[in-house]
């Protein structure tokens, strides 16, 4: 593996190549560097990839082809990722020098619509109300998602048409803020979705479908648990507390006691340990749910008590059948 200095120099070479490429392409109006390379928190290391946003008239060209990536460096791997916002997509690339790049492409039209909406919101609110509310909601949702990705910092690598001024204006009008209230609707949906996945996982384990149990159900349950841990942490630390995304740095921002229990929710590929992991995650989820419901005085019907009993009963019937040793777990 290459040394830290070599990798950092290689990344600088790719960034310089991106700058030249962006300047030379007439369809590209701006390129922003975002993510860890644009933050001043010393979170980068030699493996930090290049997160960037390209504003262009030809996003479909970059989506349908990958030959252009060779202009940035010798490509080892390249594929189309998901959407960051509406009318966008991500191209994920690794170059021969071990440098990774996540490039999000946004249309010039989408950017112009976002900026125009911000102008209406700030200066001509009455005109904004004339437009269909669903249309404005979709546009503003995309703007809010965009400001989330740049709220920790960004810088312009290429700016041909003074996009920076408009981006700053968008930030002012649609400043990214965490909600000051518990999203009760999302909370209720998370609770119900978690318990349905938990019971489905128990059924799959009972059928000896261990791969499906882990791939289909366990993955989703961990995502719902992360929502709960995030909300719980904010209930203790305040809504402005940084909890990052997708569980990044969770070892630093969540309580040590919760982190110790999180370590137990991962299980091996065998029946006994898969059951154990299922019981660990359901009990942790239930504990945090109860704490949040009490703290925020949330009045919803929690299916946890009923469904956790279904899971225990199913595990007990399987152990009596002799498929695995019974687990000594406390309800």
Describe this protein's structure.
With about 325 residues, the chain is of the alpha+beta class. It has 2 domains: about 5-175, Beta Polymerase, domain 2, CATH 3.30.460.10; about 185-320, Nucleotidyltransferases  domain 2 (Four Helix Bundle (Hemerythrin (Met), subunit A), Up-down Bundle). The chain contains 12 helices and 6 strands. It has helices at about 5-25, 60-65, 110-125, 125-130, 135-150, 165-175, 185-205, 210-235, 250-255, 255-260, 270-295, 305-320; strands spanning about 30-35, 50-55, 75-80, 90-95, 100-105, 155-160. The protein has a 6-stranded mixed beta sheet. Helix 3 crosses helix 6 and helix 8 runs parallel beside helix 11. The N and C termini lie far apart (about 50 Å). This is Aminoglycoside 6-adenylyltransferase. InterPro entries: Aminoglycoside_adenylylTfrase, NT_sf. Pfam families: Adenyl_transf.
Write the layout of secondary structure elements.
Blueprint: H1 4-24, E1 28-34, E2 50-56, H2 59-64, E3 75-80, E4 88-95, E5 100-107, H3 108-123, H4 125-128, H5 133-150, E6 155-159, H6 163-173, H7 184-206, H8 210-237, H9 250-253, H10 256-262, H11 271-296, H12 304-321
Parallel strand pairs: 2-5
Antiparallel strand pairs: 1-2, 1-6, 3-4, 4-5
Helix pairs in contact: 3-6, 7-8, 7-11, 7-12, 8-11, 11-12
Organism: Chitinophaga oryziterrae
InterPro entries: Aminoglycoside_adenylylTfrase (IPR007530), NT_sf (IPR043519)
Protein name: Aminoglycoside 6-adenylyltransferase
